Amino acid sequence: MAILSVPVPSAVHILVGGFAVLILHLIVLSVYRLVFHPLAKFPGPLQYKLSAWPLLWQAYKGNRHIRHLCDHEKYGPIVRIAPDTLSFNTASALNTIYGPRSANVKKGEWYKTFDVAAGSYSSFTETDRDKHAAKRRWLSPAFSVESQKSNEPVVIDVIERFCETMRPSGNDWGPKWNITEETTRLGFDIMGGIVFGCDFKSVQEEENRDLADSVLPASKFLYWVSHLPLAALVRPLLRTRLFEIAGGQPVVDNNRLINYASSQVQLQSCEIKGGEKEERADRIDFLSRIVNSGDKKTGWQPTRADLDTECLNLMNAGADPYSGAIAATLFYLAHNAGALEKATAEVRSVFTTPDEICNGPKLNSCTYMYACIEETLRRAAPVPSHLPRVVLPGGMDIDGHHLPEGTVVGVSSYSLHHSPVHFPDPWSFQPERWIESTSVSQESINHARRAFWPFGLGTRQCIGGNLAYLQLKLSLAHVLYRYDMRLAPDDPGRGGGGPCMEQGRQREDEFQLWDAFGYGRDGPVVQFKKA
Ligand code: HEM
């Protein structure tokens, strides 16, 4: 009987064949994305239309916000920044996407990598709208007026000790301080007190700095990893030894923060003595307010993993954006002598002793100081790039375009906050633009506010916004009341841009941000003198 001989392909044939299939697949995919894709009509650089990898590279470099701004300047108010993603740069898009509860979007997949290594999703990363609503209701007592009032002495205590550490010993200018380093620890110490009732003292004591100095590297790492096109495959590996080896120090940092938050939950929720659970009734911190509660409306109760993840989130989301914002405020004041002088004079005329500086009518009467904070949040919003939202079934209309389900949409605060349509002379630091006067009408302030969103918008708006404003006002008032401030004469440019930096980073009087959740930053380097 004749045996049919079927030729067995060689390894070379298989490789060549596989390669040919891959090339064909890429050609077909490219043609589809350029010509037939529902977003094909929107302008943008060719490489963005073809692939999501350029976006990942920008996230890795911390330059996304700068690229978005340049792209909008070149291509207009709508830019296709990845095959399935559009960036908008109008107040109308901002208010359509993020504002209304009924907006047909939810948070994008991007969020899911952020804190899942702690075991669950937090109120920040939960993408399911109903589950998020339950978590938000669960957290609300921690952010109530009563809670803020009882936690204010904790905040003031940490700020006063920060000021004490900065105090020059003589009557001349004191030592140089890199404000980014010191305020990173200040923000962490405040959050340690508020969230866990712990006194980290990382501003004062070197041995307590590991945790404080871990927040930003961990966030920067997770920020770009979240942009990986196959991030879903990476998520289960985040806490493995393999990932620690591959990812290095930022992964170790992230795990250290997770372990810390978890140990605090363990301590608080299970203080067992003689077999009985003992609760400390005198505690006012956030953890003590959420540990034994849930969502009354739906009956949802947090698991241990939910608690661990939420505490990690509160610690990170609370600490770093504030630290970045106060560093940026001091940068802009140190670089704008007139504004520094006016804000300082205001604070010193309102208060007669530092002990008086607390929340209340006097602090609220410091309108110029408040305008300096607003203007800083415009120039250096702590989340400068997109907060991605994905369009749900049924699609959505934005700025006159119907977008199909699955489209990822977003607005970059850095880009919109520098739009001359809403902010005339956008590259100058002008606190006055936020104060009604003969030259600034209430209409122009309202017009600016429509495009101003440092704390997000709508149902996913920052839950800690009021607390953050209070922290910013208190810390600025305490510093300005006590000290004069100047840029260190031998390091005046730290934190600003320069001619040798990348495109978009040339302005010496602009505080440079490296995009993340919070942002990478450095400086300013300043000196203080007793008032
Ligand atoms: C200057 C300081 C701060 C800024 C600029 C800021 C900014 C933001 C932004 C833009 C969002 C929206 C994120 C999104 O849509 O994806 C957000 C959410 C959040 N922030 Fe803040 N934040 C600050 C301080 C704080 C503080 C002090 C806390 C609390 C301790 C906090 C806790 C949160 C939480 C829990 C969320 C998630 C809210 C939700 O989705 O329901 N933030 N923050």
From TrEMBL:
InterPro entries: Cyt_P450, Cyt_P450_CS, Cyt_P450_E_grp-I, Cyt_P450_sf, Cytochrome_P450_monoxygenase. It comes from the Eukaryota. GO terms for molecular function: heme binding; iron ion binding; monooxygenase activity; oxidoreductase activity, acting on paired donors, with incorporation or reduction of molecular oxygen. Keywords: Heme, Iron, Membrane, Metal-binding, Monooxygenase, Oxidoreductase, Transmembrane, Transmembrane helix. SUPFAM superfamilies: Cytochrome P450. Heme binds at residue 462. The chain crosses the membrane at residues 12-32. Pfam families: p450. Coiled coil: none annotated. Its cofactor is heme. Belongs to the cytochrome P450 family. This is Cytochrome P450. It comes from Melanomma pulvis-pyrius CBS 109.77.
